[in-house]
Amino acid sequence: MNGATRQLDLFFDRPLPESARPIQLDDLFEAYAACRRHKRRTASAMAFELNYEENLVELCREINSGQYMPGTSVAFIVDRPVKREIFAAQFRDRVVHHLLINKLNALFERSFIYDSYSCREGKGTHLGIRRLGHSIRSCSGNYSRECWVLKLDIRGFFMSISRRRLYDMLEEFLNAQYREPDLPAVLALCRKVVFLDPAANCVVKCKRSDWDGLPPDKSLFHAKPGCGLPIGNLTSQIFANFYLNGFDHFMKHDLGLQWYGRYVDDFFVVHEDRGFLAALVPVAGEYLARRLGLSLHPRKIVLEECSRGVEFLGVVLKPRRTYIANRTKGNMYRAIMRHNRVAEDHRPNHRERSVLQSSINSYLGLMRHYHTYRLRHAMIYSHLSQWWLRLLTPDASLHKLSLVHNPRRRIR
C-alpha cells in the first residue's frame, strides 16, 4: 500500500457518530436488485450472486463501521459511438452506487430544470431532440421568421470536474435538503465515491495501443490532480448532472433564456437575435471557469441559422423533417460490414445471429423515430449480404428486425 492510499484510508476509515442511523440492510437489498437487473451476466456479478445475502450483510457492516473502500476498477476503451475511456467498478461498488442514487435522486430531480435530459427517468436523447425542435419552431414561428441556435460544448467535461468542489456542493445541498437520519452515512459514502481516483489502482483490460487517438482531456490518466470522474459509474452520470445544475439555473433563470437545453455537456440556446447569442458565449464561459473550473471547447462553438439545419445528438433537424446524422449512418454501415464478414466462410451459429439481431435492431430502433424509412430499407437490402437475408427469412425469432419482414409498413 503506497503512502497516498494509506492517507486516504486514514481519512475515510472512521466509524459513524453514535447518534447517526446506519445504512439499513433493506436499502442494500433494494440497491442490489436494481444493480443486478443490468449487470447480472458479468463475472463479478455472478461471483457476488453466489452468496449474495452474506455479501450484502458484510457490505452493510463495512459501510456502517467506516471500513468500506471502493475496489479496483477495470479500464478499457470503447470505439462506438465515439472513442471513450471506461472504468468499470466491481459489482459490490455498483451496489453502493445504486444505494446512493436511490437515496438522493428524488432530491436531485426536484432541483433540476426540465430541460436537462441526460440520465433521468423518462428523459434522454429523443426528448432533447424534440425539445430543440420545439424551441426552434416556437422561436421562428414555425420557420416563418429567422432564428439562430448557439451550440456549446465543455472541453473534457468529466475529466475536468473538481472532486473537492463537487463534494462541497453535495455536502451543502444534502445538509440543506436531506432529512433522513442516515445523513452522516450517506455523506461518508459520497466522500469515498467522489474522491476515489480509479486510475491510480485499476486493471487495464485492453491493449495500451487502444488509447492511441484518445485526446488527453478525455482520459483520467491525464487529468489534473484532484479532478475527474470515471465514465461508466452511475454516480458519475448523476453527479455530473448535479455539478452543472447551478449553470442550468444561471442560463435558464438568471439570464432569462427561454429556449435553453442541455444533454450532459452539450447545450443549446435558441434566439431570434444572432448578436445576442454571440455575446452570450463569453458570459457562459466566464461562469463555467469561475464557478466550476470548466472551459468551453473553442472548436465546438457553433452559431448557425436554424432553417439551414441543426445537428444535435446524432440527428439533423430541418424544417418539417428530422434526419439521422452521417456519423450514425457510418457506424451502422460499418456494423453491417462486420457482420457480413462473419458470414463469408461459414453458416453463422445461434450466438452470431443473436449478435447481428441486437446490433442492427439498436440502429433501427434509433432510426425509426425519425424520417428514415428509405435509409433503413437501403441499409438492409443494399448492404446486408444476401447470405444473411436468406438465413434470416425463415427464422421467426429474428422477425424483430424492423423493416426486413414488413417492408410495406410506413414509418416516419
From TrEMBL:
Keywords: Nucleotidyltransferase, RNA-directed DNA polymerase, Transferase
One function term, GO molecular function aspect: RNA-directed DNA polymerase activity
Pfam family, one: RVT_1
Signal peptide boundaries: none
Domain Reverse transcriptase per the UniProt entry, residue ranges: 1-317
Record InterPro entries: DNA/RNA_pol_sf, GrpII_Intron_Splice-Mob/Def, RT_dom
Family named by the database record: Belongs to the bacterial reverse transcriptase family.
Protein name: RNA-directed DNA polymerase
Organism encoding this protein: Chlorobium phaeovibrioides
Source lineage: Bacteria, Pseudomonadati, Chlorobiota, Chlorobiia, Chlorobiales
